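We now fix the convention by which a protein and its fold are recorded. Think of the row as the fold of the chain written in a discrete alphabet. Here is one such record, which you should read through line by line.
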Amino acid sequence: MAENLAGLDTFPKLLLHHARTRPERPAIREKDLGIWQTWSWHRFADEVRSLACGLEAHDFKRGDHLAIVGDNRPRVYAAMCAAQCLGGIAVPLYQDAVATEMAFPIQNAAITHAVVEDQEQVDKLLEILPQCPTLAHIYFDEPRGMRHYAQPQLMSCDKLVELGGESFRRDPAFLEGEIAKGVGSDTAAMFFTSGTTGVAKGVVLTHYSLIDRARAAAEMEGLTDADVVLAYLPPAWIGQNIFSYAQPFVTGYCICCPESAETVMSDMRDIGPTYYFAPPRVFEALLTQVSIRMEDASALKRSLYRYFMEVARKVGGEILDGGSVGAMDRLLYRLGDAIVYGPLRNVLGMSRVRVAYTAGEAIGPDLFRFYRSLGINLKQLYGSTETCVFVCVQPNGQVKADTVGPAVKGVELSFTPERELLIRSPGLFKEYYRNPEATAASKDAQGWFHTGDAGYMDADGHLKIIDRVKDVGKLADGSLFAPKYLENKLKFFPFIKEAVAFGHGRNRVCAFINMDMEAVGNWAEKRGMPYSGYVDLASRDEVYQLMRECIEKVNADLAAEPEIASSQIHRFLILHKQLEADDGELTRTAKVRRLHVGEKYAALVDALYDGKQVVHVEAQVRYEDGRTGSISADLKIRDAKTFPPVAARKAA
């Protein structure tokens, strides 16, 4: 980057730098009532100053933790920086978490102040106040519905800003002095892990670690203040936070906050992001929408789509990487770009995307190739909360479907004899908050972070992740069993939303399937198939046949891979309900908690291996409005065709 950021070692210092050097450039946009509202860097800095001085007036001091709960909004990010101006620590929490899930981080960090978005989040915090006696101040951004709340802990953010603005005007030198005291080694934020393997842990990250990794990746990709990013994932997730907070503070680019989760696609088309980030589940959902649209299209459009997507699969990736492609194939691809790929990129809101990343978990290779074949420069990166995201990134022209690229500048990689990946990086976390045992277990005396991921380096120096070390297992015959790899291949199909594979220590692999209600519902309606809801549709023989076809295509692919050919799926069932975070089956970042699911549905797992054709299940479910109910159903179990390795190519 051409810009000199020497000495700007904290986020508040970076903020003041942008307010001085690009005061009228857009820092953040928010869509409200259908209209985009723009905050310049100057306005954003003024808001941060007022919030910081307001917090100081309410006894927020150096070392204190500020909880932040809400969707992506300007004040969410302003509140983070306001806490850091005073030497405090931002603690973003998942806005979709239930009240009881918020109690642990608030207790663990002894949080005294919280900034929340609206009445819904206020209600959650008021519910857990008896368990969280340190929480003395709750500030709400959206006043709607708050008129009759009289609890002494409550104050509107507008009032806090007014209070702080008056304080800042009386003594601006105070805040400037507090910002000057900050150094890169100070703690900037704490992110709670998703709890995939148990109790969530508070990951303590410094200004230096976050800024260093954000800068390394920005330099690699040539990011500038002209780039535009959509901030639509939870701010409490390190992936979103690095793209919507750390990197814009380093580069000066603008982030855009959609109006709601339902308007993300149309809002993307409005703003045309140049830099995009999404976990695989988002790319899966987008592909499902594309598949549904094509199902509804005319016969001619479906025929053109299939033909040109075949051209794209053949040469799209090579063209994107600057490879050698014949003149006729290039001509066909250009024609396809005019008829299919360009309009499709526009529908997806990706017409201007220069760099797109996916991370969070492994992405299916077929899904990955689909987006690259459209001309979208989608690349895989590898990292975690503990490493400030950027550990490995695929460089342009060196993109592979089955790796996550080489190490980013400054990162060292190593492996244990059990294939566990070890990392040393400037972005490494400081500690797990108030958990020295977990810190010592994850970070050794030599500074290596033990990731828990199994992998190896390929011949080109790219990291290849197989699965979690604890999840990589063996079938009874000793052959490799990597469940996540199988699940990702299944989830490429638009009809399959989630899959959970079982097989460690057993003689064959079996699976639970969660169908995608939108895709399968659309498929059923086009065939005149009536159904009353998820449970009814999931029990239909026609749907089981649809899932069997998907599984058998995966089995044919697996048979062509010698190391994993024994992991073909022999039997499966369609679960009676969607896996849900509220039921403990998914993390808040939508990762399957495989161990919990296996224990919760142990009777169903046993039925898969006992040769049964039907198994009865009764379960409690939580509805969207908070009510609970029970489901009673007879689940069918079906066999899937498997293929000997030598027959794989013919079967496919």
Remarks:
- Residues 647-652 have pLDDT under 50 and may be disordered.
- Residues 11-25+37-206 form a domain with the Rossmann fold fold (CATH 3.40.50.12780).
- Residues 299-320 form the longest helix (22 residues).
- The CA atoms of residues 382 and 392 lie 5 Å apart.
